[in-house]
Amino acid sequence: MCATRLPGARAILYVLPSNRAVTSGEVATLINGEYIYYVYGEIGYSDVFEQPHKTTFCVFLAKDLQHLSPCGKYNEAD
Q1: What is the 3-state secondary structure (H, E, C) of 19-77?
Q2: CA 34 to CA 51: how far, in whole Å?
Q3: DSSP letter at 2?
Q4: CA distances from 21 to 11, 18, 45, 64 (A)
Q5: In a domain, 22, yes or no
Q6: Domain assignment of residue 28, yes or no
Q7: Which of 9, 19, 26, 40 is the most exposed place for a label (fewest CB within 10 A)?
Q8: Residue 8 forms part of a structural domain
């Protein structure tokens, strides 16, 4: 669980475990565009009126391995 500074807020971050480093071959496939690395997730919360809301996000790593760009879908909030 990660801490937040908002009153009454609670945040939980789930990450898939990995005990290995990315290989140079895997990096090459990202740079040449054969593979695309996506990061996506969902944020759920209740507003001050206790109404539930959900925000989804999706970005992908550019071929230069330096920038994230938004996906064409899945970036939504209600």
Answers
A1: CCCCCHHHHHHHHCCCCCCEEEEEEEEECCCCCEEEEEEEEEECCCCCCEEECCCCCEE
A2: 42
A3: B
A4: 27, 8, 34, 19
A5: no
A6: no
A7: 19
A8: no
Can you read off the two tokens belonging to residue 25? 């071959």
Is pLDDT above 70 for 73? yes
C-beta neighbour count of 68 within 10 angstroms: 12
- Give residue 64's domain range: 35-77
The residue behind tokens 């938004």 is 70
Given a cut of 50, whether residue 64 has pLDDT beyond it is yes
In 3D space, the residue among 54, 53, 58 whose CA is nearest the CA of residue 41 turns out to be 58
Is 68 within a domain?
yes
Is 11 strand, coil or helix? strand
* Amino acid 3: pLDDT: 45
The residue with greater pLDDT, 16 or 72, is: 72
